[in-house]
Amino acid sequence: MMKCFISKFLQPNREFLGQVSRAVDIICSFMKENCFRNSSTKVLKVVKGGSSAKGTALRGRSDADLVVFLSCFCGFADQGTNRAEIIAEIRAQLEACRREKQFDVKFEISKWENPRVLSFTLTSKTLDHSVDFDVLPAFNALGQLSSGTKPDTQVYIDLINSYNNGGEFSSCFTELQRDFVISRPTKLKSLIRLVKHWYKQVKPRRGALPPQYALELLTIYAWEQGDGTPQFNMAEGFRTVLELVQNYKNLCIHWKVNYNPENEIIKNFLTQQLRKPRPIILDPADPTGNLGHGTRWDLLAKEAASYANSVCCANKSGDFVQPWALKVREIFSSSELGEGLESPEMCAYKNPALATSPFPPGIVLTMTYSPFEYCCGPFSHFSPYNDGPYLCFSHLSSVFLCMLSSSESSFLPMMLVIISADATKPPNSSPDLCPELHQGDLAVPQIQHI
Questions:
Q1: Are strands 118-123 and 43-49 parallel, antiparallel or unpaired?
Q2: Alpha-carbon gap, residue 400 to 418, rounded angstroms
Q3: Cβ neighbours of residue 407 closer than 8 Å, sequence gap 6 or more
Q4: What are the TM regions of this chain, as residue ranges (predicted)?
Q5: Helix (H, G, I), strand (E, B) or coil at 83
Q6: Whole-number Å distance between alpha carbons of 110 and 335
Q7: pLDDT for the residue numbered 395
Q8: What is the mean pLDDT of each successive set of 10 residues along the chain, which is 450 residues long?
């Protein structure tokens, strides 16, 4: 039933895709041949971005994102300083084409003094319908990057040293954002369409919700750590995304597919990013962009809760499906952490029935010198006093695995933190066994009864 709904109502047909493609060709030709013909600025390349480039466009949404990489930008700072002037030039040239009746454009008025994007609607005799465009001028930070290769580490070092606001130069990484999604299985793209359709249904009545891109990344994360196969159950996948949205306060998601955390500058920057308040969803192409920051996840979570028991989360027999139990994934590997932290920090959603506790319920940690912030930065904003009925330890060589579970739903969030410690004795059910462990000069929490 869900497959039929997606195919009939969400999947764009060939006619739709052909129209968007013809519109893109019109604007690409204009950018390359006409826009800067009387200027020293050269168009290095034009890259198609957005959902139409990723293969996740919704039927009836005739829009396209084009990123124009220009020779006048010699660095990220140049783009930030001069983009308004370039956008004004592109607009002037588009208006000249309109006067020559090559095509018609209607511009969207920007509320920003230094806008990042020129938005307009294109109509033409060669098109059956109008198409909305976002054109973004950008610095060619990646150069001619070969498919499947990582950007040079210096690109991200320069980005970290140049940015003021997270994600402000994300347009420079459009090709990486596109490739991250377009390579995914066809059915996963259909799940992304379903999530986007749900998002568009609830957004008008909720206001400042998280960006749609955050939901796309959350869907990919759910599939990677959940089923992970090309032929998964669509209802279970959708239910898992809804469950993740409801547990937004525990989200800490990032990928290392493009930026190299073995570099000291990048590693330190990522550590700072992952110490910020939840939810955290780092752009896999741009580590400065946290898609979880500064929006009303609480409102989206309420909508997700109301949809969790809807027909789209039921199987063929009408029973409601359960979300996937998501696997543990490393945030940093041992080699990336270096000395002082022997094992990775990790976070995940996982069924706590799989965990065994050497301590009975009613054990808490008493902090000294905030070792969570020192040893386990991404978890420094969680309090063990408020987030679950028990805190337990599992002995793993010279490392303690700390797991915090909650009993508020059947799909239980679990934070996993590994603290490097010189533990000569494994823990048992006695809270007096290891009253204090030491990590350098910092005291790791004492164990006490509540």
A1: unpaired
A2: 6
A3: 388, 389
A4: none
A5: helix
A6: 47
A7: 31
A8: 86 87 92 89 94 90 89 95 93 89 84 86 84 94 87 96 95 96 96 95 82 96 95 94 95 92 93 93 97 92 90 81 77 45 30 32 31 29 32 30 32 33 35 34 35
Q: In CATH, which superfamily holds the domain spanning 1-140?
A: Beta Polymerase, domain 2 (3.30.460.10)
Token pair of 405 as six digits? 């579970």
**pLDDT value of position 55:** 92
Q: What's phi and psi for 48, nearest 5 deg? A: -80, 130
User: Which residues, other chains included, contact 67 with Cβ-Cβ below 8 Å and sequence gap of 6+?
Assistant: 46, 47, 49, 135, 136, 137, 138, 171, 174
pLDDT number for residue 329: 54
Domain positions in the chain are 1-140, 328-449
Kind and range of the H or E element at 390? strand 390-396
Q: How far apart are CA 67 and CA 216, in angstroms?
A: 20
Q: How far is it, in rounded angstroms, from Cα 187 to Cα 230?
A: 7
pLDDT of residue 17: 86
C-alpha 136/C-alpha 286 separation (Å) is: 16
Cross-strand partners of 118: 135
